[in-house]
Write a structure and sequence with these properties.
about 15% strand, pyruvate-formate lyase- activating enzyme, alpha/beta, six-stranded parallel sheet, Rossmann fold
Length: about 500
């Protein structure tokens, strides 16, 4: 009698925290339960072969927006080959609007929401009887003190090679309508002493990279300070054995006590993910996002100037009520703050999120297939939305990659959004691609674009070469993607002209 907990991770480096929570809370069934993780892109038949080799009676799948299509194929094949195996689904992708989903129709049972208590109870019914009458089981939310923590289930291989996800709290008090956390009533903290003891054990086993999944790490400053002190103590005890911590923080809440703690971290030890999403107050009000934009900007500016934290700041294009001009103003404002990375995201309609209430009023059209990306709004047509999608991809390749650090200021000039959009459109027109562009080719394209924008050819070549000294061989004369000679150099002029 074997119970298998399975999921398809986005990549090997991601270790499933959700499955480990389920395994930790299986109680008397824990010894009969195995964990099997796969990576998206793996052949369906290979996954099914490995699952059936476990001789399972029950397989529980963690279903997410990035793996639902491939997991659907796995479940369909399992039901053909081994119809006696009971398939139980759980996870955010199947917890809402589940009735019409093919994967739910294929499966035997579905646990919506929290599964820590409900999944083990369902397994006991399937094994011992009486057999469950209902297909859908609403997850029971227990007190956090009743949930066994899963961190000892990270293997030595996980610790050596994978990102370790941890959480000091669950839930979120904010109601941003594009986020599933909008459905939470509040945030619930785990007992801090017990959580820190778990971190201590992980560190003693060799863990050095911790990614917190808390939505609001800096909501409770006293708890934030204690967690940061844990890492500062490790750094002080062994400066040559650094630890790294990633936190998601509320951008407009950075009191002096927290600033004092942040300032103590050395370079390379601390990363903050900061969700700005939009600088437009009207758009923020539409999606129920409460944010003091001036305070958020001030805090980002302070972090850049006074801390060694690496800042990863998020913006979302396609929100209801926002046109390209509004988004461009927000983007330029954020660029001026000089965060290390700007994550340019495109709105997605996650199942269950309240953003759908704006569909008719703002002409929201979403792709019906995962990840349900916005295709058009009443303010941004499909063609322009596609341009924004390409902008986001090229921004990752050129700006967020850090590969064009010397060239980027010249690329952006005085109008960062407008100029980078020109570059994005130009590259796409010559390559008809946003992926599989070789690094050397991209460098040649950037140098050529700068030259065509009025930067002296030698200067453009030198800029890109300084980013790629010893890595790529730029031709003495810039060439087009098709190999034709470049147009004669134009009169030198400002990039923003």
């Amino acid at each position: 009698m074997t119970i298998v907990l399975a999921t398809l991770n986005a990549r090997y480096a991601h270790a499933s925290l959700g499955l480990r929570y389920l395994l930790a809370n299986m109680g008397t069934l824990k010894d009969q339960t195995q964990l099997r993780e796969f990576v998206i892109g793996t052949r369906t038949t290979d996954i099914v072969e490995k699952l059936l080799a476990c001789n399972p009676r029950i397989i529980g799948f963690g279903v997410y927006i990035w793996n639902v299509e491939e997991t659907t194929r796995v479940v369909a094949l399992l039901k053909r080959l081994a119809p006696q195996v009971r398939i139980v689904l759980g996870g955010p992708e199947v917890s809402y609007e589940s009735a019409e989903q093919p994967i739910v129709q294929l499966a035997d049972y579905l646990v919506t929401g929290w599964g820590d208590v409900t999944f083990p109870a369902l397994c006991r019914q399937i094994i011992d009887g009486p057999q469950p009458l209902m297909k859908v089981h609403a997850g029971v939310q227990p007190p956090l003190a009743d949930i066994a923590l899963p961190y000892d289930l990270y293997s030595d291989e996980d610790i050596a090679h994978r990102t370790l996800y941890v959480e000091a709290s669950r839930g979120c008090p904010f109601k941003c309508e594009f986020c599933l956390s909008a459905l939470d009533k509040t945030a619930w903290p785990f007992a801090l002493d017990g959580f820190l003891a778990e971190l201590e054990r992980l560190h003693a086993r060799g863990a050095r990279l911790f990614k917190f999944v808390d939505r609001t790490f800096n909501l409770n400053i006293k708890s934030s300070l204690k967690i940061m002190q844990f890492f500062l103590d490790k750094l002080a005890a062994a400066p040559d054995d650094p630890v790294y911590a990633h936190f998601e923080v509320v951008p407009d809440h950075l009191p002096d006590a927290l600033k004092a703690g942040i300032m103590q971290f050395p370079p390379g030890a601390l990363q903050f993910e900061i969700g700005i999403q939009s600088f437009n107050p009207d758009v923020q009000a539409l999606v129920s996002r409460k944010q003091d934009n001036d305070k958020a900007a001030e805090n980002i500016r302070w972090l850049i100037a006074n801390s060694n934290a690496h800042l990863h700041v998020d913006l979302i294009a396609g929100l209801p009520g926002e046109d390209i001009a509004s988004f461009a103003r927000g983007f330029d404002r954020l660029v001026a703050l000089k965060p290390h990375e700007i994550q340019f995201g495109i709105l997605k309609r996650l199942r269950g999120t309240p953003i759908i209430r704006h569909t008719e009023a703002f002409g929201l059209i979403f792709d019906p297939a995962p990840p349900y990306t916005i295709l058009a709004t009443d303010r941004i047509g499909f063609a322009d939305m596609q341009r924004l999608v390409r902008f986001a991809r090229f921004w990752d390749m050129v700006a967020n990659s850090g590969r064009f650090a010397n060239s980027l200021p010249t690329i952006l000039g005085e109008s960062p959004f407008a100029n980078f959009m020109l570059l994005s459109d130009w590259i796409y027109a010559r390559t008809d691609a946003t992926h599989r562009i070789a690094l050397e080719r991209l460098a040649v394209l950037v140098a050529q674009w700068l030259a065509e924008r009025g930067v002296a050819t030698d200067t453009a070549q030198a800029l890109v070469a300084s980013d790629y000294a010893g890595k790529v061989n730029l031709p003495r004369r810039t060439v087009t993607a098709k190999g034709d000679s470049a147009l004669p150099q134009r009169q030198a002029r400002h990039l923003a002209a």
